[in-house]
Amino acid sequence: MQGSTFGKAFCIHTFGESHGGAVGVVIEGCPAGVPICIENIQYELNRRKPGQNILTTPRQEPDLVHILSGIEQGISLGTPILLLVYNQDAKPQDYAHLAEVFRPSHADFTYFKKYGIKSSSGGGRASARETLARVAAGSVAKQILKYYTNVEILAYVSQIWKIQSQIEPQKVQVQDIEQSIVRCPDKKASAEMQQAILEAKTQGDSLGGIITGVVRNAPIGLGEPVFDKISADLAKAMLSINAAKGFEYGSGFDSVFYKGSQLNDAFYTDEQGQIHTQTNHSGGIQGGITNGEPIIFRVAFKPTATILKSQKTVNMQGEVVEIQAKGRHDPCVLPRAVPIVEAMTALVLIDHYLRNRIVRL
Questions:
Q1: Element (H, E) at 165
Q2: CATH code where residue 176 lies
Q3: Which region, left, alpha or beta, applies to residue 206 given φ > 0 means left and ψ of -120 to 50 means alpha?
Q4: Domain coverage including residue 106
Q5: What percent of the chain has pLDDT over 70?
Q6: Rounded to 5 degrees, what angle do the CA atoms 47, 211, 305 make?
Q7: pLDDT tens digit string along 209-256?
């Protein structure tokens, strides 16, 4: 139960497998009386769904969301919300040749050792298909945040393989992200990324990269002083995403190259009497609490584990075998992971916002 649950004041519980009947989410803690638009939820799911273009898996899933409880005539009731998406293009037979083997860098081995059984088709709960439940819940979180605040959440692909975007995070706009097939706002880098992904796909290989997240107009004071720092919860949220291998915020690991005199964010008061920082090396978070400056973070994703090249592994009897994966897979997960990063960001922010709201009431 706990392994599929996220959040405290705003809590989600996801369920379903990659090639099962459906995937869905139960949301607890949504305030009553908030307008929730199903079209907005569907829009976010469409950004994540497979089969979008030549760079993604050819699996064709409409990913149509069904609201089964908690929302009536577009208004939240304050009761649990159940969102459900039926699988319509599942092909478990594609995985029959992998039923008895442990795929390199997959969760097959660890799941089998932990539970004594593993899903015979796809990755089961370890499949990225589970993330559609997070995106659906994240859309609800975004809508609640918009109702109460002026927060803007966006994410974009800033690097694929060795190709990097040269646009600064604070200058990125949503329309520039969505105009790119790889969701990179830098047109030159976007074209190079697309070509690199197509080449890897042709070779039966895969690529990784980095997604940058940006939060503008975050309320000051979100986050707790010790274990529930907003930075810690963002790190947990991002590292729970399939294929995520690293997280940093603000100056991150580059902080080691500076002295304190170079990295400290000096305060000043603007013409309206509001306190800001002259720089933002802290990434909008100080002491684990939001300071009102843009929250900027980066998430590193490894290359997709399922590739079409022949690989050596072992089966359940410990015997060395050679496998060549079949089926439908993304040669690079990053373009479809952008809405997932945004969703997990929204879930962290709404959880802390409601915790603050509850305390202050």
A1: none
A2: 3.60.150.10
A3: beta
A4: 2-360
A5: 96
A6: 80
A7: 999 999 999 999 999 999 999 999 999 999 999 999 999 999 999 999
